[in-house]
């Protein structure tokens, strides 16, 4: 492929042998002065920070001060897999974690992603890549794991959007069709240039379809940081993949663990969630049936027409055996729609491959906007991905805009003529294109909900309390797509999470609301301790969450704690011990995560956040804000007033009932926060105690200094 390449800087290195899951070195790149060098991965890093998200937090902590902003040169992007990442014997072992300071939250963000980049980076000799500084013009960072060369290059390509860029760079650096499977590209499109919702697209080559596929590090604006640093792409090439490239301590142990899991998937997946046929889209009709899929900016949990976008995806997906985003993943949830003809935008008329849609995209672009058209969902899915825009943030942010439009807070004069009513697919799609181009009302929308709330109050005299109630964000991160009004535990999962309103820390709706397995505050607090720790652990080791509980053993319901899927936890004990040679227990897994989770909480403190006030949630995630919401479920809410408060709703106005219910529900949330803080070893202001830090071995002098400053405040 004839594309001009200008090499700016080169670094040659000796490719190390991977030892028990580690390359034992990190690649450091400074784009400002073109420094490229190697940093050692120490035993302390492996012991306490493990890998993945832990390594990202470790490096970022040392790179930034409490005054650093996301667009400052000293901010970094770190990508790391983890010691188990890259094994091929167990499903879901291809994850990478991206860590940076977030444009939307102002604090540290971590985002997990599939694709081949993380494993190929490790096998090329690097446990992590740490990128700092800003380039003068767009550059490609190329890691050649075959020759032991890293280069910073200027590559002349016109199109920055990911579906084009990833395809072109894969062909360029592969050199031949046979090598395309050995190349992975990280990129972000023009939407990441022009909004704070930028994502990173990680590529993998689909051999069956002869096509480049994309997976997203979606949350918190990682792609916006990437493009602000003028990185056009990261490219890694590695041709030497073998079944035991991780050089595990005990091959037989991880092999037997994997065989057991693959049999389970083959036998049970079709009887359980059908992940291999439906992917995460299997959740959509379930959430609709349980009144949990966000509709019209989270006002409701379902809609009579919701089935039009929740129920038919299995017929639109094309199947070629297992659709895994890393080798050996028999769960294969990475579904795809092929030959979709685009109806709008710069690629109108082209037939494209659409990766997804995932559940979050179906709910965010579909039901939450009151748009019940699966073609629109596909169109939005494709353009969000190629532009590098987070589908969750776009969906939740646009739902907020639509409610503000219908309430008269903003109008056509403000939106530039866009009629942003719920259900207007044409206007929503045009808004997406405007966000990507950085034009019109799209420039405002792409700032995110937190900034829009401030702007609408200051410029258009909107009631800031109402905006706070309906603006579905915590810590600046837009809500992922679950209605939490009837699940106090899930409200805490969003509000008390380190990075904001994302379900990857705790997804407790079914345990709490449907199964009533955690009835007391103490039960909920224990769940909000255990499950975030488990999910953190996946992100330390390069593992996907889905094989943990989206497929379960046949006798799982008969175990003492079925919600934890204990047999699978034993699998992870075997995997970690088998790869690293460091024997660990189930409690040891939790302790590893506790250290990182608490370190990240202190990181929030360092950046000016991390106290109780920042754990507050918008009231809509707790209860009904408007008369319309209350009256749509009047019997339910009236009964709650009677049962929980001894309040007789007879003869009361809806406004009076809303006020009474709100007082009760807000008190419940505060009591939950108290219980969770106590269980986590934090003060009642949400600050980890010195005793907690010492117990977890993260009582480093600079960590203690940050905590002491806040304890004395």
From TrEMBL:
Cofactor dependence is on: tungstopterin; [4Fe-4S] cluster
User: Domain of life here?
Assistant: Bacteria
Presence of keyword Heme: no
Name the InterPro entries for this protein: Ald_Fedxn_OxRdtase_dom2, Ald_Fedxn_OxRdtase_dom3, Ald_Fedxn_OxRdtase_N, Ald_Fedxn_OxRdtase_N_sf, OxRdtase_Ald_Fedxn_C, Tungsten_al_ferr_oxy-like_C, W-dependent_AOR
Q: Does the keyword Iron-sulfur apply?
A: yes
Gene3D superfamilies linked: Aldehyde Ferredoxin Oxidoreductase Protein, subunit A, domain 2 (1.10.569.10), Aldehyde Ferredoxin Oxidoreductase Protein, subunit A, domain 3 (1.10.599.10), Aldehyde ferredoxin oxidoreductase, N-terminal domain (3.60.9.10)
Q: Which Pfam families match?
A: AFOR_C, AFOR_N
| Gene Ontology MF annotations | 4 iron, 4 sulfur cluster binding; electron transfer activity; metal ion binding; oxidoreductase activity, acting on the aldehyde or oxo group of donors, iron-sulfur protein as acceptor
Q: Which UniProt keywords apply?
A: 4Fe-4S, Iron, Iron-sulfur, Metal-binding, Oxidoreductase
> Ranges for the Aldehyde ferredoxin oxidoreductase N-terminal domain?
22-240
PANTHER family to which the protein is assigned, alphabetical: ALDEHYDE FERREDOXIN OXIDOREDUCTASE (PTHR30038), TUNGSTEN-CONTAINING GLYCERALDEHYDE-3-PHOSPHATE:FERREDOXIN OXIDOREDUCTASE (PTHR30038:SF7)
The text of the family note is:
Belongs to the AOR/FOR family.
| UniProt-recorded name of the protein | Aldehyde:ferredoxin oxidoreductase
Tell me the organism. Desulfotruncus arcticus DSM 17038
């Amino acid at each position: 492929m004839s594309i001009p390449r200008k090499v700016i800087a080169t670094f040659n290195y000796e490719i190390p042998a991977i030892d028990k899951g580690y390359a034992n070195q990190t690649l450091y790149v400074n784009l400002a002065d073109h420094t490229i060098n190697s940093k050692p991965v120490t035993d302390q890093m492996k012991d306490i920070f493990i890998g993945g998200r832990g390594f990202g937090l470790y490096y970022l902590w040392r790179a930034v001060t409490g005054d650093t902003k996301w667009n400052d040169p000293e901010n970094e992007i770190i990508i790391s897999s983890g010691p188990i990442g890259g094994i091929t014997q167990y499903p879901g072992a291809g994850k990478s974690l991206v860590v940076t300071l977030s444009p939307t939250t102002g604090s540290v963000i971590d985002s997990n992603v599939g694709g081949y980049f993380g494993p190929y980076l490790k096998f090329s000799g690097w446990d992590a890549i740490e990128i700092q500084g800003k380039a003068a013009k767009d550059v490609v960072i190329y890691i050649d794991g075959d020759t032991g060369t890293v280069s910073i290059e200027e590559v002349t390509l016109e199109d920055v959007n990911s579906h084009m860029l990833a395809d072109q760079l894969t062909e360029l650096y592969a050199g031949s069709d046979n090598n395309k499977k050995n190349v992975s590209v990280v990129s972000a499109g023009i939407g990441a240039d022009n909004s704070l919702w930028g994502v990173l697209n990680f590529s993998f080559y689909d051999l069956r379809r002869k096509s480049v596929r994309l997976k997203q590090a979606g949350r918190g604006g990682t792609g916006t940081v990437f493009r602000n640093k003028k990185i056009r792409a990261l490219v890694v090439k590695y041709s030497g993949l073998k079944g035991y490239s991780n050089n595990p301590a005990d091959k037989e142990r991880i092999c037997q663990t994997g065989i057991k899991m693959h049999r389970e998937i083959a036998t049970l997946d079709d009887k359980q969630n059908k992940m291999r046929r439906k992917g995460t889209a299997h959740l959509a009709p379930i959430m609709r049936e349980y009144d949990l899929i966000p509709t019209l900016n989270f006002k409701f949990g379902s809609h009579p027409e919701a089935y039009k976008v929740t129920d038919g995806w299995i017929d639109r997906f094309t199947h070629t055996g297992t659709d895994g985003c890393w080798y050996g993943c028999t769960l294969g949830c990475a579904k795809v729609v092929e030959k979709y003809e685009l109806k709008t935008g710069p690629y109108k008329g082209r037939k494209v491959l659409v990766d997804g849609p995932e559940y979050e995209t179906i709910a965010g672009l579909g039901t939450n906007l009151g748009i019940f058209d699966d073609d629109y969902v596909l169109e939005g899915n494709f353009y969000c991905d190629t532009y590098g825009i987070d589908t969750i943030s776009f969906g939740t942010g646009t739902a907020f805009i639509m409610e503000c439009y219908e309430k008269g807070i903003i109008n056509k004069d403000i939106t530039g003529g866009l009629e942003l009513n719920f259900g207007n697919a044409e206007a929503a799609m045009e808004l997406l294109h405007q966000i990507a181009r950085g034009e019109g009302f799209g420039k405002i929308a792409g700032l995110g909900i937190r900034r829009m709330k401030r702007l609408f109050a200051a410029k258009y005299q909107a009631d800031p309390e109402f905006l706070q109630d309906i603006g579905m964000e915590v810590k600046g991160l837009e809500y992922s797509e679950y209605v939490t009004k009837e699940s106090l535990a899930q409200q805490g999962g969003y509000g008390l999470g380190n990075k904001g309103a994302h379900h990857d820390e705790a997804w407790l709706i079914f345990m709490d609301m449907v199964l009533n397995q955690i009835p007391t505050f103490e039960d909920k607090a224990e769940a909000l301790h255990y499950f975030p720790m488990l999910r953190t652990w996946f992100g330390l080791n390069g593992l996907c969450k889905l094989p943990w509980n989206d497929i379960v053993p046949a006798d799982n319901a008969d175990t003492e704690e079925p919600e934890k899927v204990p047999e699978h936890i034993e699998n992870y004990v075997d995997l970690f011990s088998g790869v690293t040679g460091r024997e660990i227990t189930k409690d040891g897994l939790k302790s590893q995560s506790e250290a990182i989770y608490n370190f990240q909480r202190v990181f929030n403190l360092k950046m000016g956040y991390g106290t109780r006030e920042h754990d507050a949630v918008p009231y809509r995630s707790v209860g009904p804000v408007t008369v319309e919401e209350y009256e749509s479920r009047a019997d339910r809410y009236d009964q709650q007033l009677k049962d929980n408060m001894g309040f007789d709703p007879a003869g009361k106005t809806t406004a009076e009932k809303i006020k009474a219910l709100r007082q009760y529900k807000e008190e419940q949330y505060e009591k939950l926060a108290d219980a969770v803080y106590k269980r986590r070893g934090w003060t009642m202001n949400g600050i980890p105690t010195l005793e907690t830090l010492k117990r977890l071995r993260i009582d480093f002098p600079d960590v203690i200094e940050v905590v002491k400053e806040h304890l004395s405040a």
